User: Which sequence fits this backbone?
C-alpha cells in the first residue's frame, strides 16, 4: 500500500499534514469551501443481468462462500457498517474468514468501530488487516495511538465517508452489509427482525459504489423486502446466518436522560440560550444526539415549546424515545433520522410516516447538490476539547490518545448555529484550552460554547451577542473561560508526542485538516 | 523511628476528583514517590512536586509515598498527604495552600436562606461544582455523611475546600460534629472564613455558649473580628422543648433548623410524608424562632427524584412559617427557590401596600391606609419583605414602583 505517509506540509489551519497517505496522494485542508475537485464521480463497473440468477435468488451458502466468490484477496478494501453498534458480529467474522484463507494486507473501512471490535487487534498485529480507515473507538484507537498499525489511520465523518466513496478516494472492493431484514434478491432494511436497528443509511454509498456487495441477514423474508432501504439491484450475493448482531447491544431499551446535576445544568443553560437568542421559534429545526446531555437539551426544548406553544418543523438526528414522544405529542412535525438509538425509535420509524430514514448522502455529503445539515437551525454537539479560537476536537483526549470517531459531528457544523455544551473541566482535565490537541472542526463554524461556568459566543456571531446581551445568561469570553479552567485545575503540561504520525483527520471535502501523532509510552 | 504506614483518601472505580495516599516512613533512602494518575500526562510532574513539598514542610526526609490519583485538585491531594503525615507524626503544623481571593466575601445575619446544599465533607468531587447550582448556602458536612474513621481527614478536606474552592457567593456553612467532638472541628474552620456553623443535635443554650467561647478563642489567635454565625439544628424532643432558649442563646444564632430523621427516631415513631408526627415540633420551632426574631429552617426532603412532591412539601413548609429548607441534591435548589418565592397575587398586594406606605411617609402621614382600610406596621414590613424577595428572585424589577404608578394612572 505504499509508504505510510510522506511530505508533511502546513495546511490552512496551521497543522502539519502529509501529502501522501498509504500510497495515495492527499490534499491539505485549504479552508472552508475552498477545495472543489474538478472531476467525475467514481464509476463502478457496469453489471449485466445475464450474470445474475434469473429468478433473483442470489443466496449463497455462507459468508465465506460469498467472500470467496467476491474474489477476496490480498490488499483489498473491505467495508462494513455500524448499524449494529457494539452488538456487531459481522466484522469480526469477515476477518476471521480472511485469516482462515490466509489473506493479507486488507484495508478495513468501517463506518465506525466499537469496543466489540477489539477482537480485530490480533489481525492488525499479524498483517491480515493493514490499516483502518474509519473511526477508531476505545481499544482500536489505543492500539493505533501507540503506532502499532502498519498503515496510517484515516478518520472521516459520516458525510466524509460518503464523499470519499462517491469521489473514488476510497475504492471499496467488497462491502458486507448486515441487515435486520432482507430478501434473496438483496433488498434490505433495518426495521424488522431480532437485529432491528432502524435504518441502513451508512451502507448506501457502499451499495452504490463497491465492486462486490454482499448482504447478510438473520431474517430472510420472501421477495419483496419492504421498504428496500438498500436496493437489491446493487447486490451480488445474499447470505443468511444465525445471528448478525446481539440485540441488547444494538439498541438500548433504556436510553436515559442524564441524572448528573452538572450536565442537566448545561442542558438547561443551552436551552435557555436558544430561547433568548430567538432560535426556538415556530417552524425551527434542531439536531439531536443520543448523549445524556443532548437528550436533556431536547427535554428542556420540549418544556419550552410546550409552555410557549411552539412547534418545530423537523428534528434531525439520532432518534430515541424522547424525540419520538415529542413527535407523537406534535411538538415536532418530522424526524429526519440518521441513526436510531433505541427500540422506541425503531418502532416509530416503522409505524410513523413522519419519522423518516435518511442517509449520509441526503444529510451530510459535501460533494452533492446541497445537503440537509445546512438547513438545520441549531446543532447541539459535544467535544473533548475546545480552544480559544473556537476550534474543537472530538477524536483525541488531552493526553493524546485517539479514542473516538468523528461521526456526523463535522457535517453538523454547517447548521446555522452550532452550540457545544461542555464542562469547563473533567476530573481536572481542562476542556477549554489554548490549543486543541487535534483540530476536527475549525473555529469559524463553531458559534457558542456553553459551560457550567459561563457561555462564550464566537465574536464573529455579532447577531447572537446582540440578542442575548440583556439576558441573565452568564456570557463570558472564551479567554475568560480558559483562564477560569486553568485557575481551578492548574496549567496542564503538553502531552509528549513522538514525531511519528498514526492517523490523519479528513475534512468533509476530503482534504486533511489535521494529523494525530503517536503518544510516547 | 519505627516503620509505620498510614493511608488517606478514597479509592475505587467510581471515585473521581479524589486520590488515595499511602505513606510509609523509612529510616533511610530519601523520598520515594510512586504515582498512578488519571491525569499523569497533564499534571503528573506538579503532583510529585506538591507531595515532595508537603513532606519537606513536615521535615520528613525518608519515606515512601504512593499516590493513586483520580484527577484530584492540588487542594485535595494536599489534604490527603497531610492526613497521612498526621497519623504518623505528632504535629500541629498545617500545610496551607493559597486562600483564593474569590472566597473573601462575607455573610449577613439577615439574608435569604431558602436553600442550603449538603456536601459530604470527605467527598471533594461533589464540592467542586456545588456553587454553580446557585444555592443560598453550601454545607460542608463533617457529621453524618462522614464515616467515623474518616473524621480527621475530612477536617482537612473541608478546611482546604473553604480556602480553595469557589462557591460563587453561596453562604459558606459547615456542619460540625455533635458535642463535644464538634468543638475539635472548629479550629479547621474559623480561620478560613467559614460564615456559619451548623450545630447538630443542639439541646441547650450552654452548648452554644461553650461553642462561642471556643470560637472567640480561635478568633483572637487569628485576629479575626467578623462574627461566625450559628444555626443550631434541633433534632430531639429535648431540643424542641428548649428551642427558644437556644434561639436566644447568642446574637450569632441567626436561624434554627429542624432535623426530622433524628427527631422522629427520638419520639420512637417513623417519619411519614404527611409529617403529622412532627407537626408539633415544627410549629413549636417556628414559634420559638419568630419570638426570637430569627429564621426557621426546615429539614431536608429526601426523595431526590420527585420534584413535584418536593414542591408540595415546600408549600406546606412555607405555610407553617419556615423560611428555608435543606437540599441533598442540586436539582432541588431551583424548585425550593421557586416555591419559597412569593406568589403573583402576593406580590401585587405587597406592591399596593408598600406603595401606600411610601406615599404616606412622603406626605408625612402617621397612618398608612389602602382605600378605606388601615394597614398595620407588621403588614407593611411583611410586604416590604415580599417585594425585596421578588426583586432578588428576578420576579419584578428594582424599579417596580415606576411601572406600578404608570399602571395606576
Assistant:
Amino acid at each position: 500500500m505504499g509508504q505510510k505517509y510522506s511530505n508533511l506540509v502546513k495546511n490552512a489551519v496551521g497543522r502539519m499534514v502529509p501529502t501522501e497517505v498509504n500510497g495515495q496522494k492527499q490534499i491539505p485542508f485549504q479552508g472552508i469551501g475552498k477545495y472543489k475537485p474538478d472531476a467525475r464521480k467514481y464509476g463502478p463497473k457496469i453489471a449485466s443481468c445475464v450474470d445474475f440468477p434469473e429468478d433473483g435468488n442470489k443466496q449463497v451458502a455462507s459468508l465465506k462462500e460469498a467472500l470467496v466468490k467476491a474474489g477476496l484477496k490480498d490488499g483489498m478494501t473491505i467495508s462494513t457498517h455500524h448499524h449494529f453498534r457494539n452488538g456487531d458480529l459481522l466484522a469480526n467474522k469477515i476477518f476471521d474468514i480472511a485469516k482462515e484463507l490466509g489473506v493479507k494486507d486488507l484495508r478495513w473501512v468501517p463506518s465506525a468501530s466499537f469496543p466489540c471490535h477489539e477482537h480485530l487487534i490480533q489481525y492488525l498485529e499479524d498483517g491480515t488487516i493493514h490499516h483502518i480507515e474509519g473511526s477508531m473507538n476505545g481499544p482500536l484507537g489505543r492500539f493505533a495511538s501507540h503506532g502499532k498499525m502498519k498503515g496510517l489511520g484515516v478518520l472521516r465523518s459520516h458525510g466524509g465517508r460518503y464523499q470519499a466513496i462517491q469521489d473514488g478516494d476510497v475504492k471499496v472492493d467488497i462491502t458486507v452489509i448486515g441487515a435486520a431484514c432482507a430478501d434473496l434478491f438483496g433488498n434490505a432494511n433495518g426495521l424488522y427482525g431480532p437485529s432491528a436497528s432502524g435504518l441502513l443509511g451508512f451502507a448506501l454509498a457502499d451499495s452504490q459504489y463497491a465492486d462486490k456487495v454482499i448482504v447478510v441477514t438473520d431474517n430472510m423474508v420472501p421477495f419483496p423486502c419492504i421498504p428496500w432501504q438498500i436496493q437489491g439491484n446493487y447486490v451480488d450475493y445474499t447470505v443468511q446466518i444465525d445471528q448478525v448482531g446481539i440485540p441488547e447491544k444494538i439498541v438500548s431499551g433504556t436510553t436515559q436522560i442524564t441524572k448528573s446535576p452538572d450536565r442537566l445544568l448545561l442542558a438547561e443553560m443551552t436551552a435557555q440560550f436558544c430561547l433568548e437568542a430567538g432560535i426556538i421559534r415556530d417552524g425551527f429545526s434542531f439536531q439531536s444526539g443520543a448523549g445524556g446531555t443532548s437528550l436533556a437539551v431536547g427535554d428542556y426544548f420540549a418544556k419550552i415549546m410546550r409552555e410557549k406553544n411552539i412547534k418545530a418543523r423537523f428534528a434531525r438526528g439520532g432518534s430515541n424515545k424522547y424525540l419520538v414522544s415529542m413527535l407523537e405529542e406534535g411538538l415536532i412535525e418530522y424526524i429526519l433520522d440518521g441513526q436510531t438509538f433505541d427500540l422506541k425509535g425503531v418502532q416509530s420509524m416503522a409505524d410513523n410516516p413522519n419519522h423518516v430514514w435518511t442517509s449520509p448522502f441526503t444529510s451530510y455529503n459535501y460533494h452533492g447538490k446541497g445537503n440537509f445539515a445546512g438547513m438545520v437551525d441549531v446543532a447541539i454537539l459535544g467535544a473533548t476539547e475546545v480552544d480559544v479560537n473556537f476550534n474543537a476536537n472530538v477524536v483525541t483526549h488531552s493526553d493524546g490518545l485517539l479514542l473516538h470517531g468523528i461521526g456526523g459531528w463535522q457535517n453538523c457544523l454547517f447548521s446555522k448555529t452550532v452550540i457545544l455544551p461542555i464542562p469547563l473541566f473533567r476530573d481536572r482535565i481542562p476542556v477549554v484550552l489554548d490549543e486543541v490537541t487535534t483540530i476536527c472542526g475549525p473555529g469559524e463554524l463553531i458559534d457558542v460554547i456553553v459551560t457550567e461556568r459561563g457561555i462564550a459566543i464566537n465574536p464573529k456571531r455579532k447577531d447572537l451577542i446582540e440578542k442575548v446581551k440583556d439576558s441573565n445568561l452568564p456570557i463570558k469570553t472564551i479567554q475568560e473561560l480558559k483562564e477560569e479552567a486553568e485557575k481551578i485545575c492548574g496549567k496542564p503540561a503538553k502531552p509528549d508526542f513522538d514525531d511519528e504520525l498514526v492517523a490523519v483527520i479528513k475534512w468533509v471535502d476530503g482534504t486533511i485538516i489535521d494529523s494525530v501523532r503517536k503518544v510516547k509510552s | 523511628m519505627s516503620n509505620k504506614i498510614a493511608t488517606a483518601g478514597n479509592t475505587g472505580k467510581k471515585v473521581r476528583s479524589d486520590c488515595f495516599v499511602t505513606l510509609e516512613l523509612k529510616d533511610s533512602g530519601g523520598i520515594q514517590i510512586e504515582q498512578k494518575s488519571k491525569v499523569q500526562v497533564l499534571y503528573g510532574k506538579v503532583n510529585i512536586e506538591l507531595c515532595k513539598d508537603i513532606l519537606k514542610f513536615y521535615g520528613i526526609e525518608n519515606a515512601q509515598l504512593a499516590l493513586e490519583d483520580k484527577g484530584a485538585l492540588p487542594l485535595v491531594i494536599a489534604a490527603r498527604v497531610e492526613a497521612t503525615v498526621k497519623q504518623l507524626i505528632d504535629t500541629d503544623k498545617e500545610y496551607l495552600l493559597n486562600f483564593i481571593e474569590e472566597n473573601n466575601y462575607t455573610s449577613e445575619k439577615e439574608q435569604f436562606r431558602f436553600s442550603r446544599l449538603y456536601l459530604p465533607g470527605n467527598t471533594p468531587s461533589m464540592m467542586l461544582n456545588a456553587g454553580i447550582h446557585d444555592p443560598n448556602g453550601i454545607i460542608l458536612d463533617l457529621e453524618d455523611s462522614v464515616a467515623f474513621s474518616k473524621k480527621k481527614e475530612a477536617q482537612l478536606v473541608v478546611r482546604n475546600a473553604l480556602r480553595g474552592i469557589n462557591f460563587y457567593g453561596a453562604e459558606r456553612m459547615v456542619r460540625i460534629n455533635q458535642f463535644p467532638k464538634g468543638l475539635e472541628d472548629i479550629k479547621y474552620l474559623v480561620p478560613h472564613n467559614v460564615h456559619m456553623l451548623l450545630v447538630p443535635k443542639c439541646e441547650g443554650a450552654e452548648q452554644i455558649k461553650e461553642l462561642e467561647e471556643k470560637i472567640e478563642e480561635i478568633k483572637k489567635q487569628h485576629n479575626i473580628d467578623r462574627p461566625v454565625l450559628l444555626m443550631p439544628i434541633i433534632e430531639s424532643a429535648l431540643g424542641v422543648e428548649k428551642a427558644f432558649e437556644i434561639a436566644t442563646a447568642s446574637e450569632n444564632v441567626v436561624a434554627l433548623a429542624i432535623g426530622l430523621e433524628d427527631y422522629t427516631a427520638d419520639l420512637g415513631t417513623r417519619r411519614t410524608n404527611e409529617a403529622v408526627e412532627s407537626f408539633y415540633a415544627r410549629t413549636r420551632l417556628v414559634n420559638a424562632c419568630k419570638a426570637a426574631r430569627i429564621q426557621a429552617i426546615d429539614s431536608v426532603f429526601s426523595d431526590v427524584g420527585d420534584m413535584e412532591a418536593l414542591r408540595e412539601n415546600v408549600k406546606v413548609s412555607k405555610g407553617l412559617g419556615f423560611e428555608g429548607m435543606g437540599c441533598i441534591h442540586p436539582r432541588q435548589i431551583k424548585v425550593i427557590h421557586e416555591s419559597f418565592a412569593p406568589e403573583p397575587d402576593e406580590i401585587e398586594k405587597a406592591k399596593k401596600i408598600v406603595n401606600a406606605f411610601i406615599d404616606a411617609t412622603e406626605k408625612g402621614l402617621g397612618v398608612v391606609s389602602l382605600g378605606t382600610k388601615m394597614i398595620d406596621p407588621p403588614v407593611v414590613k411583611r410586604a416590604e419583605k415580599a417585594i425585596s424577595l421578588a426583586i432578588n428572585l428576578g420576579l419584578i424589577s428594582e424599579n417596580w414602583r415606576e411601572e406600578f404608578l404608570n399602571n395606576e394612572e
Summary: Residues 5-88 of chain B form a domain with the Ribosomal Protein S5; domain 2 fold (CATH 3.30.230.10). Residues 8 and 80 of chain B are 5 Å apart (CA to CA).
